[in-house]
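Entry 14. Structure prediction run on the chain below.
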Amino acid sequence: MRTWKRYLTAWSRHHRSGGFGIHSPFAFNFVRTVLRQPKPYYAYSGIGQLVNTIKANTTRRQRHDLDLLGERDARLLFRVTNFFNPRRILQAGAATGVESVSMLAVSRESRLYLFDPQIEQKALAVKVLQSQLERVDCYDDARVAVDDFLQADGTSLALVNVPIDEALLHRLLDAETVLVLRRLNHDEAMWRLFDSCCSHMTTGQTYTNGKTAILNPSPKLQREDFTLWL
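Output returned:
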């Protein structure tokens, strides 16, 4: 969503984020108790400490280049992961590792399939993930990562920080994997992937603020799209 469109839709997105005009019981509950949940969770303190530690040791320019996830967005990612409670998590793009830690904090039983061909060059992400390495499988090939991910058992969620082949995302959706796409407002390729996924879905719901998108392809849900204030 372009910046000017986000300004033009600000009021309607804010109104919808309160649950107004949402007729789907699932969507109403998801928006009010997950996306807009004001109460604290047990993992918030650890997430906040991690983000603040990184901020204290980096410049603003470095944080931008590293794609540091802010504490507010990290909390949102934790809540979404907590709601779906996946046993297996796929992540494309390691960034600083904050996303990985936020998702893995939900359950000790979950496993992360991390695709990033440059992970060895990302010292910060490797350091952040050091304590979780026994629960992380690293890949330099997205197709292999998706293959292994889909062959594993349990509920699933995928976080996409960087563009990957849209056919792989379609495979994930067909397998009823919840997708979280980030950086829609910074990368045109990410926005095109979001459009492609929306067109591919025949059931389920999507939620976006133009920066982050959450796609739930559940066949139990009628096909709907929600533009919100996250």
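Strands lie at 88-92, 111-115, 136-139, 156-160, 178-181, 205-208, 213-216, 224-227.
Filed with the rest of this week's runs.
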